[in-house]
Amino acid sequence: MSDALGFFFLLMSNGVMIGLMYSLIALGFVLVYKATDAVNFAQGEFVMIAALAVALSMLAAGAPLWVAVLIGIAGMIAFGFALERVVLRKLIGRPVIAVVMATIGLAAILRGVGPTFFGAGTKNLPLPISDEPFILGPLFIPPIQVLGAAVSVLFIGAFGWFFLKSRKGIAMRAVADNQQVAMAMGINVQRYFGLAWAMTGIVSALGGIIWGNMLGVDVNLSLVGFKVFPVVILGGLDSIPGAIVGGLIVGLVENVAAGYVDPYVGGGTKDFAPYVLMILALMIRPYGIFGKRIIERI
Amino acid sequence: MFHRECGVLKTSYEADMALYPLPIARWTVGALAVLFFVVLPLTLHEYYLSIGNLVWIAVIGALGLNILVGYTGQVSIGHGAFMSVGAYTAANLATRLDSPWPVNILAGGLMAAAVGAIVGIPSLRIKGLYLAIATLAGQLIIEWIINHVTFISGGVQASIEVPRPRLGTIPLASQRQLYFFLLAFVVLAIIATLNLVRSRVGRAFIAIRDQDIAAEIIGIDIFRYKLLAFAISSFYAGVTGVLYTYFLGIANYEQFQINVSIDYLAMIIVGGLGSILGSVLGAMFITLLPIVIRLSMEAFGGMFLEPQTVMNLIPNLRLMMFGALIIFFLVVEPEGLNRLWRNIRNYFRIWPFAY
């Protein structure tokens, strides 16, 4: 195999892995949007704060990994419920800008809370896996990426099952489809809103552990959140398979674009290319590949 | 302002639409003009005037954003980028062609308006959340282009030094001179916005905000008016960018990143969507917030904490206060400071009687 082709495959494999890890974070966004019609501009900050909680319970409190992970997940579930109860329930039925700005405000708070209460330095989040990449011909695949992709696929499968088969999942789909009718059918809509935010908390905690291990845990970890928007717009804001497909597309495009374009423009293509793609998607197919088309009536 | 409309009967539409409903309104505006044009600049120290200048710059941007978000109902998270378009247009004109400031300001505004209208094109097909994300993409893409195209920015991470504006032959170098310069633009912007929102165009904007399909049915060309709203709003943003560049003396893309877009959105949320007084109050509030936090922490923080801790705490405290305020206003007082002011005024209007 020639070097050029090998380089291309390296970029592709990296893109697939990173893309699946984006899917995991995007899943948190999709879950909330699907169930509550609210958008979470603080998704990246959720990931950051979860990673901080896990890293600190390991480093400062000396907890073993599984305890730390449980603390992180439990903390994020509580946070999700509390957030829905205190802030977002008050904003139901208000214009889009209200929810958008509320989550942006939340993002600002979390970015301030992180360094204030957990310290500003970058922390390691050690996982018991080796740093040695798997070498397959031209491909170098770090084990953390394999783990991330696996967790991502696992959870997306689990949520797929949850929405299709479980009683709670079906109720949640009913809430997403039409809140009034769901209420008339005896579904406690507000409880499911809380549940959706708690599920986002779980996903964010897992995303935080994996991304925190890769990038190190500090405020900048929240920048991962910026990748969520291209992913969900491409896949469709309310589609779980869309999160996977969108994540894969974004991962592939940004890696390939960065591999070939970065040397000429001085870097930064990774942050730029997904958004160009997203603008194109918005022009051609604004509701994404799998998204539900909204029909408006007066 | 404080006045009682006892016995005021409006008998024509002109009277109802008048900017000064009563003679006393004219007097209050006159008193405010004396305060801001004479009393403050002659009494305050240069440092406080520089804070005032920041406030005036923010007022213009907030007014522009409120036209788009508050009056037309189109969300934009890209106003920081529109400001950078204005700033870099003016900076390039000023350094390459040595053009005078009126040309730079106009060109910066018009260029920003053109870019804003282009970013606003998706608003025909998408709205609400999708539009918010599309403008966010606009912000990131414009930022990247400006930073990476050497012709515009002079290279990655570079900044352009801009000469001070000149009135005749006098360069406006001191904060006091800039204060008058900026205040003139604030007055222009407020008058223009007041007149815009009570015109045919402004009423079309409001109709689109309230229900865009219904607006289209009664004969408003929504594509044209949405783009017009983006263009007008971006024009204000472009002028803000140029003025900020003149204030700083350099054009640098870091001054116009996404947090700036968010700051301006926060101003109009805190001030009140769809309100001119609200834009002004919100701009003052959000601009003064970090300064007040810093000053009060420097003054009182040392009593309880180590000096180094205080220094580290200030930026984080600013972020937390900022976020908490946005959420507080959204949940508790969605109509913002404007509504608080109205409540106070209504209380005093009938005071000391109960009703």
Can you characterise this structure?
The complex is a heterodimer of chains A (about 300) and B (about 350). Chain A is an all-alpha fold and about 300 residues long. Chain A has one domain (about 5-115, about 135-285): ABC transporter involved in vitamin B12 uptake, BtuC (Orthogonal Bundle), CATH 1.10.3470. In chain A, about 70% of the residues lie in helices and about 0% in strands. Chain A is built from eleven helices and two strands, in the order H-H-H-H-E-E-H-H-H-H-H-H-H. Chain A has helices spanning about 5-35, 45-60, 65-85, 95-120, 145-165, 165-175, 180-185, 190-215, 230-235, 240-265, 270-285; strands at about 135, 140. A two-stranded antiparallel ribbon of chain A has the order 1-2. In chain A, helix 3 (about 65-85) crosses helix 8 and helix 6 (about 165-175) packs across helix 8 (about 190-215). The N and C termini of chain A lie far apart (about 60 Å). Chain B is built from 15 helices and four strands. Chain B has one domain: ABC transporter involved in vitamin B12 uptake, BtuC, CATH 1.10.3470. In chain B, the strands form two sheets. A two-stranded antiparallel ribbon of chain B has the order 1-4. In chain B, a hairpin with a 2-residue loop joins strand 2 (about 165) and strand 3. With about 350 residues, chain B is mainly α. In chain B, about 75% of the residues lie in helices and about 0% in strands. Chain B has helices at about 15, 25-45, 45-70, 80-95, 100-120, 130-150, 150-155, 175-195, 200-210, 210-215, 220-250, 260-270, 275-300, 305-330, 335-350; strands spanning about 160, 165, 170, 250. At the A-B interface, helix 4, helix 9 and helix 11 of A face helix 6, helix 12 and helix 14 of B.
